[in-house]
Design brief:
Radius of gyration of chain B: 30 Å
Number of domains of chain B: 3
Helix content of chain B: 55-70%
Strand content of chain B: under 5%
CATH class of chain A: Alpha Beta
CATH architecture of chain A: 3-Layer(aba) Sandwich
Number of helices of chain B: 30
Number of domains of chain A: 1
Distance between the termini of chain B: 90 Å
Shape of chain A: globular
Largest interface: A-B, 23 and 29 residues
Strand order of the largest sheet of chain B: 2-1-3-4
Oligomer: heterodimer
Number of helices of chain A: 6
Strand content of chain A: 25-35%
Structural class of chain A: alpha/beta
Helix content of chain A: 25-40%
Distance between the termini of chain A: 57 Å
């Protein structure tokens, strides 16, 4: 069985977000790009599944939609251990466009498990996974926090309110993963980075697909109010502040 | 003549066995990797005279140190007598060196006295081993065989001394009987001879003792290489072959430099090979140490010279607080693993595998990750064994070949790679510490104005992001402004020195940071770097030159001391008058770089009094944060290192514990909190104390 892990190229989580002058696009000047943390966990789990040979995972492929600038991120995924990478050469306009591109890649290969992070840490749309399964017309399971294989049979654990749910699903399927799918993200070892240089990174043209959404405007959140300190024994002031300013009482 | 033939045969057998042993060890050495080249012979000779012949390091424990030194010096003198015995035995002469006259008398007299001294010392050693519960002699690595080995060797030495005295005593009696002139002077034996009634048996007893003594020497010589007492042969050369670099310096992996340079130039990294050119890239050999064939010849030499005295382990902060790590065990494991795998390697070549390895089958990951890289073990070792180089080598293997660092360390690797600091903060926030508190010039601004400051002030990630330590950056900047020093910081262009990444085993990440920093420094034509962080200080000073960055690096303690010496700082204001201050030595200023004086001179200039902890200067205990420990949970043990150290400080009764390192500050502040002593004791950096007494 082959596993496809969809990778989103996102700004490092410490990035100071800035927008273009007209507030309609993200200003990516000087930004350090990383693998979307949820995708990184999905890749880590995929590698773990492949390493246990009893699972019969033959190959782990990573795919990303974007211009050549996403290639370093795909290389990182290869360094972590993916066997090959595919870049769909197109501008990731919105979830629908991305899902359509991914579907074209996923549909053209013999992938049993297709993994996506539950959301990307930049736009947090949480839509690609669901759309992808819809376009592919395969089942999808969302918010996966555990995935084990027993031959062709896949058992999935989901966190639900107050407990866990176990589901099984026939391959091929789209798994939308959240934290917990792997304990800690794997990082690339020196040896892995060197080997990644020799692994295939295939660039495929984008298929025709519509971008269904249009960004009107981005706005920064209001800065947080400064922290107010109250003397330890001044209960009256505390109550006053909670009542009148915070309005929680 | 018969005697000569018997002697010759015995000697040849001894040399034969010894030759076999030597060949065996040479074969093992051939399996190891290259280490440093042996240069600077003059300096090496000096180190040997001081540390080996002068026994300086063994005196770090004065009482047992003296006993050992006496045994060692005694051996040297008695060795001359033994050489004489060999010549006598071969050529049938008697006391062939007697022609040396007075010199001979001195040698014989001191040898005779030393024989008694050594015998007494050996009795004390045996008593300590057999009847006293000396902690240093126990530990997971000290198996029954180790104890037996020690006791056998001590017994042989004791018998050697007894036979030597016996030989001398009966020589005197024999000579007296025969009316011969006595060659040499034998104070102890003269006394002993007084107790024995002269009889016709003296000659026999002399012969017996002579043969016993030389026989024991031959047996001993061939027993040693298979015992921990190989030390007797190997320790002096081991000291001569000492690593001469500062303890704080970690060797640069050149194979990584090559890779990192390719990596930092993406065009080069992923360029498709030129058409038609079949470029078969050679795969560099294994990064770091997985097994015994990956250790350097010096690591193996160390392991053969080690006599398992345990001084290293007895000062190891990890071991002292109940963690599994014992530096002595690491060294012993190298020797044991070579003994196990060496013959197979010699026979079958480098590819030989017995499906076991030094890591995991001998040394667990838990041991490796418990080390704080404080260098206390290497400092303590009487024969300059370098344990941290082994631990580093194994960490490098785990990280660079297997990505098998503890999760928290993997997280800091990612942070360093993505945002240039071990903590997850945006590089754009690197100047927030100064905002609204102190005016700090920034390199880029000065360059725009065409100015070039004298010093680059390296703030460091803790200096920019740790809430407590930011106050130290502020205080020091205020002092610099007060002094009117020409300096600037890099601000948002600053990254991390790479110290943590390197010591956590990620040489690749270290070199990437270092090469990037060197490029930035070059851009601003930096000549002098000033920093409050001993780790950055050590890395810039000792480690960057290997990668092409050479600067004059000054720690703030040295800088402040120099200004005090120049009379530019008068420190009598503030509230420090009458306070008692104790100083906690940072490992990377002290042991790593031998700077114990500067911070103390700064403290002495304050209107306070200074108290010393029991463990101070080169004996100081680590705060527990070095070697990546700052960013991970401590390995399993009985206690946290920082608490052990906080207790040292509390014991002095000081009001203030002065630190000179960001990690030490974070640890000591935590320790004081943990011990609920925030009322009684405060923790300040020396820069803050100076700022306080300047009323800044």
């Amino acid at each position: 069985m082959r596993i496809l892990v969809c990778i989103s190229n996102v700004p490092d989580t410490t990035t100071k977000v800035k927008f273009s002058a007209d507030n309609t696009s993200f200003d990516d000047g000087g930004v350090q790009w990383i693998i979307n943390p949820w995708d990184e966990l999905a890749l880590t789990r995929a590698m773990e599944l492949k390493e246990d040979t009893s699972n019969g995972v033959s190959r782990v492929t990573v795919v990303s939609v974007g211009p050549a600038s996403v290639e370093p991120t795909l290389r990182k995924a290869l360094a972590i251990g993916a066997d090959d990478a595919i870049r769909v050469d197109g501008e990731a306009g919105d979830a629908h466009y991305v899902a359509a591109q991914l579907a074209s890649v996923a549909g053209s290969g013999d992938f049993g498990v297709i993994l996506c992070g539950i959301e990307s840490s930049d736009y947090n749309g949480s839509a690609v996974g669901g759309m992808l399964s819809e376009i592919l017309d395969v089942p999808s399971v969302s918010a996966i926090s555990g995935l084990t294989m027993n031959g062709e049979e896949v058992t999935i654990t989901r966190d639900i309110d107050g407990g866990k749910e176990e589901v099984s699903v026939p391959a091929p399927f789209v798994g939308v993963v959240q934290k917990g799918i792997a304990k800690e993200p794997r990082i690339a070892a020196m040896r892995g980075i060197m080997m990644a240089r020799k692994k295939p990174l295939q660039v495929v043209p984008a298929v025709d697909a519509e971008t269904l959404t249009e960004t009107q405007e981005f706005a920064m959140p209001e800065p947080k109010a400064p922290c107010k300190m109250v003397e330890a024994d001044n209960v009256k002031e505390l109550v006053g502040l909670l009542q009148n300013e915070a309005k929680v009482l | 003549m018969d005697k000569q033939i018997i002697f010759l045969v015995t000697l040849l057998v001894t040399l034969g066995v010894f030759g076999y042993t030597t060949r065996r060890f040479i074969g093992f050495f051939k399996q190891t990797r290259g280490g440093f080249p042996v240069k600077q012979l003059g300096r090496r000779f000096g180190v040997m005279m001081e540390v080996a012949i002068g026994q300086t390091k063994i005196f770090r424990r004065p009482v047992m140190g003296l006993l050992h030194a006496l045994v060692f010096w005694g051996f040297l003198v008695i060795l001359i007598g033994s050489i004489e015995m060999v010549i006598d035995g071969l050529f049938g002469t008697e006391k062939v060196l007697a022609f040396l006259g007075v010199v001979y008398n001195i040698i014989m007299a001191s040898g005779d006295i030393f024989a008694l001294v050594i015998a007494i010392a050996i009795i004390i050693f045996l008593f300590r081993r057999l009847f006293m519960n000396v902690k240093r002699f126990s530990g997971i690595e000290m198996k029954h065989i180790s104890h037996l080995d020690a006791n056998i060797a001590l017994t042989i030495i004791f018998l050697l001394m007894v036979s030597l005295l016996g030989m001398n005593t009966f020589y005197l009696l024999t000579a007296a009987e025969a009316g011969h002139e006595i060659e040499g002077v034998y104070p102890v034996s003269t006394m002993l001879a007084g107790f024995i009634r002269a009889g016709s048996g003296s000659h026999f007893w002399h012969e017996l003792n002579w043969w016993l003594h030389i026989g024991l020497i031959f047996v001993f010589a061939n027993y040693l290489p298979y015992s921990k007492h190989f030390h007797v042969f190997m320790s002096v050369p081991n000291v001569f072959l000492s690593r001469l670099e500062p303890l704080g310096k970690i060797d640069t992996m050149e194979s990584i430099t090559k890779e990192v340079k390719i990596m930092m130039d993406p065009d080069l990294a992923f360029a498709s090979p030129p058409e038609g050119a079949e470029v078969e890239e050679e795969t560099p050999e294994r990064f770091g140490i997985l097994d015994v064939e990956d250790v350097s010849w010096k690591n193996y030499f160390d392991s053969l010279a080690c006599t398992e005295c345990g001084r290293c382990t007895s000062v190891c902060p990890a071991n002292l607080t109940g963690k599994k790590l014992s530096p002595r065990k690491i060294v012993m494991d190298v020797r044991a693993r070579m003994k196990e795998k060496g013959p197979g390697l010699v026979k079958n070549g480098k590819e030989y595998s017995d499906n076991r390895s030094l890591i995991r089958d001998f040394i667990s990951e838990e041991e490796l990750w418990a080390c704080t890289l404080c260098n206390a073990c290497a400092q303590e070792c009487p024969i300059n064994i370098n344990h941290p180089s082994l631990i580093m080598g194994m960490r490098r293997y785990l990280v660079m070949e297997e990505s098998a660092a503890p999760g928290e360390l993997n997280a800091i690797f990612s942070n360093i790679e993505n945002n240039g600091a071990p903590w997850q903060f945006s590089p754009e926030d690197r100047m927030l510490w100064a905002e609204g508190k102190v005016e700090v010039p920034v390199m880029a601004d000065l360059l725009a104005k065409g100015e070039k400051p004298e010093y680059l002030l390296w703030v460091g990630s803790a200096g920019a992001f740790d809430d407590r330590y930011k106050q130290v950056s502020t205080a020091f900047a205020k002092v610099l402004n007060h002094l009117g020093i020409s300096y600037a910081v890099l601000g948002v262009e600053e990254g991390t020195s790479g110290d943590v990444a390197r010591r956590a085993g990620n040489e690749m990440l270290f070199q990437m940071q270092a090469l990037m920093n060197i490029e930035v420094f070059e851009g601003y034509e930096v000549k002098k770097i000033l920093t409050c962080d001993p780790h950055a200080f050590n890395t810039f000073k000792n480690e960057y030159p290997d990668l092409g960055g050479t600067y004059k690096v000054v720690h703030h303690s040295q800088f402040l001391r120099d200004r005090i010496d120049e009379g530019k700082l008068t420190l009598n204001g503030g509230s420090l008058s009458g306070k008692k201050i104790t100083f906690h030595d940072p490992c990377y200023l002290g042991r790593a770089n031998n700077e114990y004086k500067a911070p103390r001179q700064v403290l002495d200039a304050l209107p306070s009094t200074t108290l010393e902890m029991d463990r101070n200067r080169s004996f100081a205990l680590c705060c527990g944060a070095g070697g990546g420990q700052m960013f991970k949970e401590a390995e399993k043990g009985e206690k946290e290192v920082f608490l052990e150290r906080t207790e040292d400080a509390l014991k002095t009764g000081a009001d203030i514990i002065a630190t000179a390192c960001p990690y030490c500050m974070i640890m000591m502040t935590d320790g004081i909190k943990y011990k609920n002593k925030e009322e009684e004791m405060k923790n300040y950096d020396i820069a803050e104390l100076v700022a306080m007494s300047l009323d800044l």
